[in-house]
UniProtKB/TrEMBL annotation:
InterPro entries found in the cross-reference section: KR_dom, NAD(P)-bd_dom_sf, Sc_DH/Rdtase_CS, SDR_fam
Single GO MF descriptor: oxidoreductase activity, acting on the CH-OH group of donors, NAD or NADP as acceptor
Keywords attached to this entry: Oxidoreductase
Lineage, uppermost ranks: Bacteria, Pseudomonadati, Pseudomonadota, Gammaproteobacteria, Oceanospirillales
One Pfam family in the UniProt entry: adh_short_C2
GO biological process assignments: fatty acid biosynthetic process
Family recorded in the similarity comment: Belongs to the short-chain dehydrogenases/reductases (SDR) family.
PROSITE patterns, sorted: ADH_SHORT
Coiled-coil annotated residue ranges, if any: none
UniProt name for this protein: Ketoreductase domain-containing protein
Domain Ketoreductase span(s) in chain numbering: 10-189
Domain of life: Bacteria
Amino acid sequence: MQPSFDLDGQVALVTGGSSGLGRAMAQALASAGARVVVVARRRGALEESVAQIEAQGGRAAALVADLAEPKAVDDIASQAAKPFGSLTILVNAAGVNLRQPIEEVDQTSWQLTLQLHLGTPFFLSRALVPGMRSKGYGRIINLASLQSQRAFPDSAPYGAGKGGIVQLTRAMAEAWSRHGINVNAIAPGFFPTELTAPVFEDPTSSDQLARRTAIGRNGTMADIAGPTVFLASSAAGYVTGQTLYVDGGFTAK
């Protein structure tokens, strides 16, 4: 039997879909046939994501919301189902890295970072599980990081959140996979996004990181598409609780 990567009939919600990896993952899902709702704070950037998906023949809608606000999670879950119906795919891609020296991290930046990287993915996923369970199909993809297992300077809260999301992915998989809801994480290497702009603005740093990979280059947005579609599809029916490093072999060296 040939595996199916067709997402026709599926409805996806992508947090952080206004830019970077979130936008690229939303485009990949739409290209595979899913109808996609992108959610973030910036309306203009969201509308640009929708326009790009529609220009490629896909269907998409924008939802403006503050993903860092815990009280907004249930409302986001209900509003996201309005354009295309009940959601079967969730990509938790929203994030922030404030890049503060560890001595300068305050309660506000700590809480913001941990909410976006752990609190929102957990509670948003839990809010969508009943709908996925009723359909007998669900795919949740969390965003891990190289910092899920390695420390980088000035990123203690970010690293804590990305370390936690790996274990949260396992816990969610243990709880929900028996209902047809598989939960996995993608851990990207270095891709050119808003979060990594300080790295890519310095050609020396960018080149050094590329040389640390097994492949010899940093990631491009095209590199995230295949893993996203695979984990969202029925082809990944026996894959759950895993973290897939899409890093060009950075962690292999």
